[in-house]
Each structure stands twice: as C-alpha cells, then as structure tokens.
Amino acid sequence: MVRFVTSLLLASLGASALAATSCSTSSQCPKDKPCCSQYGECGTGAYCLGGCDPQSSFTIDSCAPMPVCKDKKYTWDNLDNAAKQDKYLGNASAADWTYSGDPKTKDGNLIMTMPTKSVGTLFANNHYIWYGKISGKIKSSRGKGVVTAFILLSDVKDEIDYEFVGADLAAVQTNYYWQGVLDWHNSGNATVDGGNTFDDWHTYEIDWQPDQVRWVVDGDVKRTLKKSETWNATANRYQFPQTPARLQMSLWPAGQASNAKGTIDWAGGEIDWDSEDIKDLGYYSATIGEIKVQCYNPPDGTSKNGDKSYVYTDKIALNNSIAITDNSTVLGSLGATGLNMNLGADDNKKNSSPSINSDSVPTNQGGSGGMSGNGSGATTTHSGSNAQSSGNGFTQGGDKANGASVYGERILSSSLFAVTVAVVVLVTL
Ligand SMILES: *[C@@H]1O[C@H](CO)[C@@H](O)[C@H](O)[C@H]1NC(C)=O
Ligand SMILES: *[C@@H]1O[C@H](CO)[C@@H](O)[C@H](O)[C@H]1NC(C)=O
Ligand SMILES: *[C@@H]1O[C@H](CO)[C@@H](O)[C@H](O)[C@H]1NC(C)=O
Ligand SMILES: *[C@@H]1O[C@H](CO)[C@@H](O)[C@H](O)[C@H]1NC(C)=O
Ligand SMILES: *[C@@H]1O[C@H](CO)[C@@H](O)[C@H](O)[C@H]1NC(C)=O
Ligand SMILES: *[C@@H]1O[C@H](CO)[C@@H](O)[C@H](O)[C@H]1NC(C)=O
C-alpha cells in the first residue's frame, strides 16, 4: 500500500481538512462530493483525478476517465511538464506529472528533496499505464528512516514497488499488492551489485505484463512474479496487479518519530534530522535521471471504443473490468466530477479563478507507496475494520486527534515498502 505522508498542507488546511468526509470500499462518498481520493477522503475536482478510487466513490463513474498510456522518455532540464496538484484538471497532454514538495532540477536530473521535518516530495505521472515496461535511472537517498520509492499504483491500490530504505544501500526492496491487501509474503529484497544505491546510478525496471511482473536491475532479472502464483482459490480470483496504474516517485520520512513502530523499524530506525546531508544541504535528496515508459498493447479481449481513456466498467476491478474509450479526461473546473465533467468550464474561460478548497484538492501528503516491511511490528496498531485495505498513507505531521494519523499509521504498518509519496491519508480503507 501506498503510504503517503501528509504534508504541511494538512496542517494549513486546518479545520476544513479535519472535517473531511472519509470513504472506503464499505462506505462510499455522498453524491455532492462523490470522489474518494487516494487518501480516502471525499471531494470534487482533483479528488476525481489520479488516485480516485472507483470502489469507494459514490458511483463507478464518479472518478474522471484515466488518460491512456503514453510511450515517453522523461528528462529533467526543467519542471515545465509538471504541475502542482491544484493546477491540474486532467489534461495529461498539458502536464505529464503532478507533484507536491520542493523538487529541484540539476544537470538534467530531478532532485526530490526532503527538508528537515518535512514530508518530502511526491511525483505522480498523469498518464496511466496498463501493462508496460517502466525504467528509471535512480540514485536513492540515504540514512535511517529515509525511504525513496519508485512504484506503480492503481486507483484500486494494485501496486508494484521498488523501495529503497536509506539504512541499506546495498539492496532495494521489491513488493506488490493486489487491491491494497496486506500480505508480507509479497515483499522481496534484491541485492544491487556494483556500487551502492546512493552513490551510483542504477537502472530499475518494472516489466509488467498481463501474466507476470519482472523487477530488473541493471539488466538483471532480480525477481519474477507469475500471475498464476497469485490465484486465490477461495475467492476464485488472481490477486495480481491488473488495473491501470500511475508511476509515482517519492522521498518520504518513514522513520519519522510519530509513525508506527513497525514502520520505523522497517525503515531502519528514526530519522536523524541532524545528519551530514541535512547539515550540508538542508535536506535529504534522491536523484532521478531518465525515466522511460514503454506501453504494451492492451490484452486481447479488452473492450475498445476509442483510444483516449481507460474507464472502470465493474467495481470488482479485475483485468476484464477496464474499457478503453474516447471519453474526455479533463474536468471543467475544480467543482466538476466524473458525473458532470464540464461543470464550471465556462467560468474558467472567463478567467474567474476556480475556488480551491479542501474539498476540491486533496491534501497532499507526501508519501510513498507501499511499505512493506515486515509490517509485523506495526500490525498491532491495526484495529481497523477493514482488513482489506489498502491504504495508503501515512500522515506526517498531522494532527493525531483527527484520526488521520491513526489511519495513516495503520496503513503504514501494513506495508512498508514503497514509494512515493503519496498521498494521503486519511484513509480509511
Ligand atoms: C490539453 O492540452 C493540450 C496541450 O496544451 C491542448 O492542445 C489541448 O487542447 C488540451 N485539451 C483539452 C481538452 O483541454
Ligand atoms: C537485503 O539484502 C541486503 C544485502 O544482501 C542485506 O544486507 C539486508 O539485510 C537485506 N534486508 C532485508 C530486509 O532482508
Ligand atoms: C483469499 O480470498 C478470501 C476470500 O475473500 C480472503 O478471505 C483471503 O484472505 C484471501 N487470501 C489471501 C492470501 O489474500
Ligand atoms: C483476464 O484474466 C483471465 C485469467 O487470467 C484471462 O483468461 C482473460 O483473458 C483476461 N482478460 C483480459 C481482458 O485481460
Ligand atoms: C462516456 O461518454 C459518453 C458520452 O458522453 C457517456 O454517455 C458515458 O457515460 C461516458 N462513460 C463514462 C464511463 O464516463
Ligand atoms: C515478517 O514477519 C513474519 C512474522 O512475524 C516473520 O515470520 C518473517 O520472517 C518476517 N519477514 C521478514 C522479511 O522479516
């Protein structure tokens, strides 16, 4: 699961954020705020875009259609192709990425930073991938409690991860989830040969096919997961990542003191906010070089009436619950939803600025994708009813009284590996 860190935004949104309506697969959003964000909160606008969970939203078409996969190479001379979350309305041709945090670019690379006591940086690609080969040249961050993530995360929390734990620069953890169900057997640990993950460039690839996932580091296949190995005979289904997913990259403070013990242990201990990197630069950092996405053809038998967007056709969210359509992915305003895509479009043209509030732009929580770890230590903090959750997120810096942190930690505990910062929290899974 993805965990996200709550960012400072949470604090700044104050009371309104705290009053957010939460959502889960067993408690869908109400009609007026129909979209369940990645963090498990209801809203409109950006809540209906990347991360919007169709299983927990008011109806299956409350979330906006998802931009289809795009073959592309990304380099980082500037951040012109990246938008802050409150500036993105679903046009992936205009902005390839949305992000939170304080990223920088240098020598054609992206520097994801995590200043003292912050929740770090999260970059999410706006083009969904429904099978493909994704690779990234990465130099991870370092230090106990500091986690760098490179993951694929779907809106129903299918997830395929690389997670770099800063306390172990000789290896990268691999993990996957199906619909956020926590299972520590899913995690693996791949040794990285030839220099460590912090000082040296390595290429981390996820080769995601309908019948298998391969984690490939510097051209060596480190791990293969066959779909056939994921069969659940009781439920009669493959618990394999099989829904359109976005690439998320993050740097986040898994070892922050307020996180669950299992999470902190997994991350190698509490973060040292007085480390060499903090003293020298004022932040921890992970460096991202070229990212390549090569899309695979959709599986035979997929319902296809266009080539612009993926939509869910069934809440069960398995491999045959996806159709490809020409439906637009772009919202008219931050008040619009999948149920009324053009709402507010005319006002926008007239230039009145859209009202941005906590119900239209989810709190960015930095974070990362799943964690795994042996979340066992953390498990004791779970109390939730949803066994099935996936959660996401952990909050950082959040106000514990509001429950968000509690959920976040629960989630965290559930998985620890991952990646990106994500988002959010308040999840309920
Ligand atoms: C999306 O952005 C592209 C590039 O900026 C632009 O050409 C196109 O008209 C936009 N599409 C919509 C539906 O706004
Ligand atoms: C992962 O592998 C590295 C290198 O072999 C080892 O030092 C480390 O303890 C392993 N980590 C886990 C969580 O198994
Ligand atoms: C298999 O499915 C059953 C029924 O939904 C569920 O209770 C069980 O936890 C699943 N097994 C695994 C390993 O996820
Ligand atoms: C979905 O998975 C099943 C079982 O592996 C397979 O038989 C079927 O062809 C798949 N359908 C699609 C559209 O991928
Ligand atoms: C796609 O667009 C058509 C025509 O506007 C609409 O009837 C249909 O409900 C849309 N489908 C989805 C899944 O949004
Ligand atoms: C995770 O926890 C389980 C149960 O406590 C333990 O058996 C297993 O060895 C642990 N796995 C790792 C990778 O530490």
From TrEMBL:
Catalysed reaction equations from the record: Random endo-hydrolysis of N-acetyl-beta-D-glucosaminide (1->4)-beta-linkages in chitin and chitodextrins
Main localization (coarse): membrane
Residue ranges occupied by any GH16 domain in the UniProt entry: 74-275
Chain positions covered by the region annotation Disordered: 345-397
Enzyme class: hydrolase
Entry EC number(s): 3.2.-.-
CDD domains: ChtBD1_GH16 (cd06923), GH16_fungal_CRH1_transglycosylase (cd02183)
Keyword Cell membrane: yes
Segments of skewed composition (Gly residues): 366-376
CC per GO annotation: fungal-type cell wall; plasma membrane; side of membrane
Annotated protein name in UniProt: Crh-like protein
